[in-house]
């Protein structure tokens, strides 16, 4: 390997098991159960065969509804992510195991204990993807109920992560347990933690969010940031902004990894890849799903509209208060105008507009072009790596591992073997300093 190759910036890869959202094509022969352990095992083993950093599971605390009907992808249920990852720890050796767990509807002692247990069982491969929730729809499943304002969500999450780290640090590196006490705005607890300091010291903390509050929270508390995939220029601006905030928390740019979530479609030629991508988008957005997507923007019942007809000529009516089982958008008027402009420009129906506006894949092309484009993003400082979301799960990742990973390795930008045993070592992150 030449000195020039050794100097190439290395990229990081992770795999996300899809289950929430419209990326999955359920009818694809490579799609499987969202409950059967064999599905999780297949995708995790494929990711480990591809030498990925970690495997990410999402969390759904309540099936989403629209007009009283459970969303198609939620109808089979959502298993607990940490439970699944504990089982995956037994059938994988090096792959990081990341659980998405809500900081709004969980408690620090319980969650810190479960994550520390996963880190022990996996010998240092655990991660926590911190998310928050503000909707009363989900809150109805919990004793407290209700919802938190946006600002309160982040202050609770920030204190939650701080307290979890206090709990993990309440055992010394040489195995001595010490009492803990925390008296804060959201939590007031004291006692003794039951799990010794884990192999990584602290499980890796992952955070997803593009808002100003989310970026500040990431700079203060996260090891990995999940974000949306966009243009190279937008990626560079996001990375510069978030990493530029680290100094205020006595952190260096190398203390944080930024990894956009991406999809991919491969073909033997560019034309074949584009054709496959278009077909996937059509299969992702059914006529009913197109109307549902429209209603999430307009905020009113549009079931009488023809999916193959024109967009509504009425203005959106944003709902007040927290959302009930629907995704919604931050600025429905702007989205509606954007969709109308797209429809007018290209003469698109409702379904065609939704397909074009919300169903695009991140990387479409030959394995060679996809490898080159990913490399270019990382080299330009627009990302540190990517979280791949395969369209069919669990079999959708196989093609990427078989056809793209070897090309990234040939370019000298991706590992050819695991050199460490913990997730922190895969990510190139420093071990946490014990705060005695």
Automatic annotation (TrEMBL):
Binding site for FMN: 100, 154, 211
Luciferase-like domain ranges (all copies): 27-382
InterPro entries xrefs: Diverse_substr_monoxygenases, Luciferase-like_dom, Luciferase-like_sf, NTA_MOA
Key words of the record: Flavoprotein, FMN, Monooxygenase, Oxidoreductase
Pfam families reported in the protein's UniProt record: Bac_luciferase
GO molecular function, one term: oxidoreductase activity, acting on paired donors, with incorporation or reduction of molecular oxygen
UniProt keyword Flavoprotein, yes or no: yes
NCBIfam families from the UniProt entry: FMN_nitrolo
Family: Belongs to the NtaA/SnaA/DszA monooxygenase family.
Protein name (database record): Nitrilotriacetate monooxygenase component A
Organism: Streptomyces fructofermentans
Lineage: Bacteria, Bacillati, Actinomycetota, Actinomycetes, Kitasatosporales
């Amino acid at each position: 390997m030449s000195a020039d190759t050794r100097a190439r910036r290395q990229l990081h890869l992770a795999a996300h098991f899809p289950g929430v959202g419209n990326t999955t094509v359920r009818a694809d022969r490579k799609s499987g159960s969202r409950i059967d352990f064999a599905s999780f095992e297949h995708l995790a083993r494929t990711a480990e065969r591809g030498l990925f950093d970690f495997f990410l599971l999402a969390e759904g605390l309540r099936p989403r509804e629209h007009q009283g009907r459970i969303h198609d992808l939620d109808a089979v249920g959502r298993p607990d992510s940490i439970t699944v990852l504990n089982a995956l720890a037994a059938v994988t050796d090096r792959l990081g195991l990341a659980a998405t767990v809500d900081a709004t509807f969980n408690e620090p002692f319980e969650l810190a204990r479960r994550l520390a247990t996963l880190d022990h069982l996996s010998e240092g491969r655990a991660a926590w993807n911190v998310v928050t929730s503000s909707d009363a729809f989900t809150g109805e499943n919990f004793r407290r109920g209700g919802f938190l304002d946006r600002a309160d969500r982040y202050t609770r999450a920030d204190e939650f992560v701080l307290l979890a780290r206090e709990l993990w640090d309440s055992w010394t590196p040489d195995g001595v347990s010490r009492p803990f006490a925390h008296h804060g705005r959201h939590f007031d607890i004291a006692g003794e933690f039951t799990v010794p300091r884990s192999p990584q010291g602290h499980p890796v903390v992952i955070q997803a969010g593009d808002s100003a509050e989310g970026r500040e929270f990431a700079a203060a508390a996260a090891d990995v940031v999940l974000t949306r995939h966009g243009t190279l220029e937008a990626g560079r601006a996001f990375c510069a902004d978030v990493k530029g905030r680290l100094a205020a928390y006595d952190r260096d740019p190398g203390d944080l990894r930024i990894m956009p979530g991406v999809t991919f479609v491969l073909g033997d030629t560019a034309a074949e890849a584009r054709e496959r991508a278009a077909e996937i988008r059509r299969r992702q957005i059914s006529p009913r799903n197109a109307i549902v997507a429209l209603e999430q923007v307009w905020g009113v019942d549009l079931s009488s509209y023809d999916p193959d007809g024109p967009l509504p000529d009425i203005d959106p009516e944003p709902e007040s208060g927290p959302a009930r089982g629907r995704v919604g958008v931050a600025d429905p008027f702007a989205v509606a105008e954007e969709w109308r402009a797209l429809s007018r420009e290209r003469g698109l129906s409702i379904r065609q507009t939704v397909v074009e506006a919300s169903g695009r894949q991140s990387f479409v092309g030959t394995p060679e072009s996809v490898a080159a484009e990913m490399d270019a993003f990382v080299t330009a400082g627009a990302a540190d790596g990517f979280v791949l979301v395969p369209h069919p799960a669990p079999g959708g990742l196989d093609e990427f591992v078989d056809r793209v990973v070897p090309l990234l390795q040939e370019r000298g930008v991706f590992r050819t073997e695991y050199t460490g045993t913990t997730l922190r070592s895969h990510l190139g992150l420093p071990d946490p300093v014990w705060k005695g």
